[in-house]
Amino acid sequence: MSDEKLIQRIVAEVVRRLKALEGGAVSAPIDPPVSLVTEDLVKSAISRGGDAVYVTPNAIVTPLARDLIRQQKVRLLVVADDEAVIQDSQKSSVLAIGADHKGFELKKQIVLMLQDAGREVMDCGVHSPQETSYVGVAKTVADVVLEKNLMTGIVVDGGGTGAALVANKVKGIRAVSCHDVTSAKFARAHVDANILCLGVGVVGDTVAQEIVATWLSTPFEGDQYAARVREIDAVEDQNRD
User: Fold this and answer.
1) I want to staple 197 with a disulfide (CB 3.0 to 4.6 A). Which of 106, 108, 163, 211 is the partner?
2) What sign results for the dihedral spanned by CA atoms 152, 154, 159, 164?
């Protein structure tokens, strides 16, 4: 957001607060809009006497944050930001997701979370907990990401590692297995990874959803990292028939 736009928003907020003070109401401090709302962020706003959190359009709210928002009646105020980081406009924002039988239940939870946040999801299966190999599922998600020119995909299996190995066999895919929000953030920001693999035997449901939220809200930083990605692609090209 430009300085001019930020100043305009601050002025408008100050005017609103002055009017609110006449009725004895005090609102929260002004914060920049966020694309990921976590429980800690909401707690921080509440601790400062706030009743609102500024968010970007299509911001993702973690399950724990959503529960706290409902309990404390915290408002989510959407702020349009024309100068936010722009993702590749040639890629679809639709997200492909798949899971084997072990990841079936977590996949359902993630799909609901994403749909609740307004994201369009392409469910690549499985559609029942019947035993299924992660190999076929990971290959399907990888193929869909490339064929449909999607921004990203998610695969859920028992450990996350096997699915990542399979997906990375597909040219053009950079799949990573993430066990925490930090690894997810760096995978997106520094490597421009396009498939996230999660293992239900490694991460719990809540952590998994926070990883997904971080993954989707973190843009690729480009610059020197873009050069590294080109080097990765060059290595891939050298070792393909």
Assistant:
1) 163
2) negative
- Residue 210 neighbours by CB under 8 Å, 6+ apart: 38, 62, 181
User: Domain range holding 10?
Assistant: 3-78
Residue 156 lies in a domain: yes
User: Which pair of tokens denotes residue 27?
Assistant: 């609102």
CA dist 34 to 20, 42, 216, 217, Å?
24, 11, 13, 9
Q: What is the pTM of this model?
A: 0.69
Q: Count of residues for the chain?
A: 241
In a domain, 62, yes or no: yes
237 part of a folded domain: no
List the catalytic residues. 190
Instruction: HSE, CB side, 13 Å, CA atoms: give it for residue 115.
Output: 10
**Average model confidence (pLDDT) across the chain:** 83
Q: How far apart are CA 145 and CA 122, in angstroms?
A: 10
**Last residue of some domain: 78, 104, 122?**
78
Helix (H) or strand (E) holding 147, with range, is helix 134-147
Cβ neighbours of 54 (radius 10 Å): 22
End residue of a domain, out of 49, 78, 107? 78
**What letter would DSSP give residue 87?**
P
- pLDDT of residue 88 exceeding 90: no
Dist CA 217 CA 211 (whole Å):
10
